[in-house]
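Service request form, structural biology core

Requester: graduate student, group of Dr. S.
Request type: structure prediction, single chain
Budget code: on file
Notes: please return the result as structure tokens.

Sequence provided:
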Amino acid sequence: MGARRTFAAACILAMLWEFAGALPPGAAQAAELVVVSGQGATPGVKELAAAFARMSGHKVTVVQEAGAALDRRLSNGPADLIAGSPDQIDDLVKKGKVVSGTTTPFALAGLGVSVRAGAPKPDISTVEAYKAALLAAKSIGYSRGCSGTNAAEGIEKLGLTEQLKGKTVLTNGGPVVEYLAKGDFEIGIQQTNIMVGAPGTDYVGPLPPEIMEYGHIGVGLLTASKQPELARDFIKFMTSPEAAPLLRKSTMEPPG
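Core staff response, request fulfilled:
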């Protein structure tokens, strides 16, 4: 029994050293990582950050910022990593804000449908059912961002772009579910990981597999980082087998 306990303890310590550069208790003070996350990445990043913090003993803070506040943080910190679309991160590499060669895909986010809380849930279990639900809806909403582009591409595949144009609402900033909860439209389409559990709305389900489009989410090391080695350890953890169930808990999937 004692040998098994010793082996288990050794395994735990090995995992800490591999993913967090952790030292034995008392050998080093806990550090803090700051992860800047886009709206679509935040649910999964928070799950991973909490697990990494528990495992390593280091603090991991996840923040969402935009516009001038985001620019200031990327330039001056505190900020160690940024999670968002690979295109966004690659653009920051070109601007010198993200370290070249560190852009790493870690998650996929599929599209789903929600309605206002208490409203009847349409059948979207098949392509034909989803098509009928869109045609029957009085209004449909999705964003101008990545998930909205994917939603529009799915509608185009169904040949419904022109038919739905007059009752489609494009949101400006913030989650689609916030507009849906206020009654701005009848059906909302966005990344599932943002929609599930949103106040004032009921999640219907994911789009049929045949027309599902996934948003790709990556992470990159910021040049402003004060903890670059620890940040690299977190990237390793984000892409490890241990991360997969945590991503699925937030209705996301690991890439590949």
